[in-house]
């Protein structure tokens, strides 16, 4: 009904009795709200050329997007903020994020996937079982939405070996609680994406903004060097 086609025609497409046109594939992609990568995959499987390009992040055409992302991250200071690609590589980060992730030896261009499977980060996250459990859910959701991403599935399977967290009373969100020496930071995040993307890189891009989950963390972050 969403695609405005008959169930008979859809059945013929599913069983191979009829071949979809490119326009039909795009119509089904819209109805299913598929990511652009999945739509390209459907087109190539049906013998057509992929429709959506994947531009390099540093391409000239991407300059307005980069400026918008950089502005968003700067404006979020003194709280940490990062921009990630589909494999959780850091494309951009503000100075607060540089300070936080720098303490974990992660800089711009680094991989959050590599970080979360390292013994180093697990040792400094106070509530690691809860964080790992939610990371598994997020990784599997993102992988499924993109038609299956081996790297996301691999990390999800590794994290799934973490013992389940004990059941206890929790707040409205599960923060990530970092213990860095005498420093304790409790953070939760929000995730934003670009509207109306027509490019694979932008369709996969996520902006993650971190916020303090308690007053002590807020005071620490506000005492950090912020961008001008």
Overview of the molecule:
With 228 residues, this protein is an alpha+beta fold. Among the domains are: 19-52, no CATH class; 60-129 and 171-222, Beta-Lactamase (2-Layer Sandwich), CATH 3.30.450. The chain is 45% helix and 13% strand. Strands 2-1-5-4-3 form a five-stranded antiparallel β-sheet, sandwiched between helices. Strand 3 (176-180) and strand 4 form a beta hairpin. It is globular and about 65 Å long.
CATH architecture of the domain at 60-129 and 171-222: 2-Layer Sandwich
Question: How is the CATH topology of the domain at 60-129 and 171-222 named?
Answer: Beta-Lactamase
Percent in helix: 40-55%
The first-to-last residue Cα distance is 52 Å
Largest sheet: 5 strands, antiparallel
| Overall pLDDT | 92
Indicate the proportion of strand residues. Answer: 5-15%
What series of H and E elements makes up the topology?
A: HHHHEEHHHHHEEHEH
Rg on CA atoms, Å: 21 Å
CATH class of the domain at 60-129 and 171-222: Alpha Beta
């Amino acid at each position: 009904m969403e695609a405005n086609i008959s169930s008979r025609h859809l059945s013929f497409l599913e069983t191979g009795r009829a071949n979809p046109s490119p326009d039909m594939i795009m119509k089904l992609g819209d109805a299913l709200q598929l990511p652009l990568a999945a739509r390209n995959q459907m087109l190539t499987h049906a013998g057509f050329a992929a429709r959506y390009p994947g531009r390099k992040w540093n391409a000239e055409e991407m300059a307005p997007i980069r400026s918008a992302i950089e502005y968003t991250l700067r404006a979020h200071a003194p709280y940490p903020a990062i921009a990630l690609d589909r494999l959780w590589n850091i494309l951009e980060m503000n100075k607060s994020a540089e300070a936080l992730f720098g303490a974990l030896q992660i800089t711009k261009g680094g991989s959050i996937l590599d970080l979360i499977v390292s013994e180093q980060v697990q040792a400094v996250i106070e509530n690691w079982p809860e964080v790992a459990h939610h990371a598994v859910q997020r990784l599997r959701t993102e992988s499924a939405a993109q038609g299956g991403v081996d790297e996301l599935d691999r990390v999800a399977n590794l994290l799934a070996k973490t013992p389940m967290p004990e059941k206890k009373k929790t707040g409205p969100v599960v923060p990530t609680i970092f213990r860095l020496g005498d420093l304790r930071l409790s953070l939760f995040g929000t995730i934003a994406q670009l509207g109306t993307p027509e490019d694979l890189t932008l369709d996969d891009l996520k902006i993650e903004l971190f916020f303090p989950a308690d007053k002590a963390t807020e005071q620490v972050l506000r005492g950090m060097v912020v961008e001008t």
